[in-house]
Design a protein that fits this description.
This protein has 211 residues and is an alpha+beta fold. It is built from 4 helices and 8 strands. The protein has an 8-stranded mixed β-sheet. α1 packs antiparallel against α3.
Length: 211
Amino acid sequence: MSRRPVRPSRTLPAAEWWAPLLVDLGAVQRGSVRAGLCVRCVDLASGRAQVTVQWPGTPATTLLPDPDAGRGALLQSIAAPGPARLAAADDDEPTDSTSVPLAGHGWLLDELGRRSDAWYAYLAEPVELLRVQTDGHRTTNVAVGRTSRGDVVEVRVPLAGLGADGMDAGLAYTIVERAVTVAAHDLRPADPAMQGGRPTFSTGLPGEEPG
């Protein structure tokens, strides 16, 4: 456990470097649900953010945004290949999700960004956020690197109704805790190719089937 981020954001010194980007991506995802935008993958494993976006019937597009550039710059880069807009909310309060899965995914992106201390100040075991990837319909997988063990746990998060009633606040901490404390019998082998060849496992949230 640490009181300082592993790699602080330039604009938010108390947050991890990727935190502003995830919050901004959450705002774009929530605002662009009707346009069909899916922020399909945010890959942070290389130390530089790679964001893959897609609209129905179109090829996926991968962007390399500056995490600290702000929402305007991010929206401009995403809107170049397809329609996108920001959620109708102020900068401090995320809008509530609905039963629409992509809105739930946007809420989760926002939650992960706003609570990046879950990755450096919550548990004693060091962890890192490697990837956030969604199928756009049912689940988002959050890949947590367990750095002292040299492996990765992908925590599967159901999207239906996520964030809609306020009961999911603090989910980032639940995800990290699940990845660190999950029993071996609740882990299933997953594809290591997605995580740089490191041993990779998958699990559900507490109380769910590991899958």
